Structures are given as structure tokens and as C-alpha cells.
Amino acid sequence: MRKVFAAYAALAGTGLLVYSLLPGSLLASAVNLGVGSLAPLAVLVGVHRNRPIRRAPWLWVGAGCTAFLAGDAVYAWYERVLGLDPFPSPADVAYLAAYPLLAVGYMLLVRGRQPGRDRESLVDAGTFTIALALLSWVLLVRPTFAASGGDLLDRAVSMAYPLGDVLVVGLLVRLLTTPGARTASFWLLVSSSTCLLAADTAFQLADLHGASLPQWVNCLFLAANLLVGASALHPSMRRLSEPAPDTAARFTRRRLAALTVASLVAPGVLAVQLLLGGPLDGWAVVVSSTALFLLVVARMAGLLARVQEQAGELAAMARTDALTGL
Questions:
Q1: What confidence tens digit (pLDDT) does each residue in 210-242 have?
Q2: With the C-alpha atoms ordered 18, 22, 27, 28, is the resulting torsion angle positive or negative?
Q3: Cβ-defined contacts of 315-322 (< 8 Å, 24+)
Q4: d(CA 143, CA 310)
Q5: Alpha-carbon distance 191 to 223, whole Å?
């Protein structure tokens, strides 16, 4: 299976390099579709050859890759063959369908890795997701709604993309905060979602400011799909869906620092807007700050309960003879 993975990596890397050197043309679209079709095929091969304990998460993620590929095909037909650039179009239906498909796949992976209830990781994931949602609202969603001159459908479709990113990244953060094996397949999947988030953000910012889309953004979209295929083909993907030990995630200094930064996003956004003298997102900051505060309180309550439980266990051990049990 390692030979199959190496062959896929070489073919995908070569195709991505060729695509990066091509200008926007019919040939570029053909290369994008040809190379991109490797990803859903690789997912099917990986599921068949690696035989993970749970096949459903990978099939959902593969369906998300297929939806992105279908969107590229429809968009290329409109732009390269018909010479049209409609918005919204059937391509947007396929693109937007990919986000819930990926989200379901990530959610099933999380459930497979953590069969028990891990409230601490859930609270941490919620904290990061709310901070990201606030940044997405301030930088993308509200400006897109304000600048859009189209009808309500145009605005709704434009705003659906950053919201889809928040959905996928929120579940990806949930996967990151869940105990379990951090294999090569795991990090390839994380890299795929990172490329998707970066590409979507760059695309939306370019569209918002009327700038032309650089080719590297298109390459990031293609890389996001190809990395999913690489994650499914890697032999370590079998361990990715295995149940983790029934223990809560460790509360490390790194996680504490990340939670601190996430909690400071709301006041930081308000401070920057006050300094720049721009429009204030008062209600968005109020709602997100309240939610973050409640999540932090819930996290501290969970830690306190765990400390008290461990103190009780230590006290019982101190009063009990290990040999006789008396």
C-alpha cells in the first residue's frame, strides 16, 4: 500500500505543478479536472485496501471531494465553453453541498475516535469555533452583505461560503481537540482543511475588493482535494478512526494559550474597530463575548470537578492498604 501512496503522491504533485504553470484556459480547466478526479478515486481505493474500522466517515469525505469536483466541472463548462459567468449557478449548488458532506465525515471520525463523552474537548472546540465565526463575520460575511448589489439570493449564496468554512473548521477543531492517534493520515487531513480555508478566504477577499484571483489560490483548492486522497491512501488511515482511550484530553499549556487567544478575539476585534474608526460590530461582539465567557466558565467548572474527583481518589488510596484492601 505504501507503493500505491507513493505513486499517488508523485502523480498528484506533478499534476499540481503543471496546473500551477498554466494560465487560465480550457487546458488549465482540463488539467484541474483530470488531476482533481484522483482524490475521490483515492478515497475509494484507500477504504478498500486499508480497511478502516469505520468506512462511513471516509465515504462522506470522499463525497465532499466529488462535490467540489462537480462544481469545478460545471464552472468550467459555463466559463470556458459557453463564455458565461453566472452567479449564482449550478456550480455553486455543488460547491456548497461539499461543506456539509465534509462536516458529516469529520463528525463521524470524531465519534469513532471518542466513543465516550468528552465535554472538555467539546467546550474547547466551541470556544475556537465561536472566535473563528466572529472573525469570519467581521472580515467576510458582513462586508459581503453590505457590498453586494444583487438580490437576496446573491447575498445568501455569497455569505454561505464563509459560513460553510466555519462549519468545516469547527468540526476539524473538534477532531484536533479529541484524544486519538496523530498519524500521518491525520495531519494530511488537517492540511487539506487548512488549504481549503486559506483558499476560500483568499477567494472571498479578492472578490470583495474586486481583485483578480491569483493562480496560487486555485492551486490551494486543488491541493485541498488531493490531500484528502493522500490521507485516505496512507496506511495509517486505519488508525485514524480507531477509538481512543476513554480519557479526557490533557489540558496542556499550549491548549491554555490557544484558549486564551480565542477568548480575547472579541474584545480585540472591538478594540481594532475603535482604533480604526470603522463601523462597529457591537451586537456580534456582545453575543460572541457572552458565549465565550460561558464556555470558559464551563471549562473551568469541568477542570475543578476533575481535580476534586482525583483528590477523592488519592484520599481513598491513602486510607486503603494496597495488599489487603482494608
A1: 778 888 899 999 999 999 999 999 988 888 877
A2: positive
A3: none
A4: 49
A5: 9
- pTM value is 0.81
Query: Does the bond joining 143 to the residue before it have cis omega, within 30 degrees of 0?
Result: no
Cell of 307: 481535580
Q: Is the dihedral of CA 82, 86, 90, 96 positive or negative?
A: positive
Query: Helices marked H in 37-89 — which ranges?
Result: 38-50, 56-76
Selection from 67, 10, 43, 28 nearest residue 218 by Cα: 28
| Rounded-to-integer distance, Cα 267 and Cα 271, Å | 6
Polymer length in residues for the chain: 326
Q: Which long-range contacts (CB under 8 A, 24 or more apart) does 69-78 make?
A: 69/33, 69/36, 69/37, 69/39, 69/40, 69/225, 70/94, 71/95, 71/98, 72/29, 72/32, 72/33, 72/36, 73/33, 76/26, 76/29, 76/30, 76/32, 76/33
pLDDT digits (tens, 9 = 90+) for 32-91: 999 999 999 999 999 998 888 888 999 999 999 999 999 999 998 988 888 888 888 899
- Compute the C-alpha angle 132/183/239, nearest 5°: 110
Q: How far apart are CA 264 and CA 287, in angstroms?
A: 14
pLDDT at 23 exceeding the cut of 80: no
Q: Is the dihedral of CA 262, 180, 2, 107 positive or negative?
A: negative
How many whole angstroms separate alpha carbon 320 and alpha carbon 326?
6
Greatest extent of the chain over all pairs of C-alpha atoms, in Å: 85
Q: Tell how far CA 300 is from the center of its chain.
A: 26
Residue given cell 484530553 in the structure block: 249
For residue 280, which of 138, 112, 77, 73 has the smallest C-alpha distance?
A: 138
d(CA 212, CA 203): 9
Cα separation, 137 vs 153, in Å, equals 18
CA distance linking residue 101 with residue 44, whole number of Å: 16
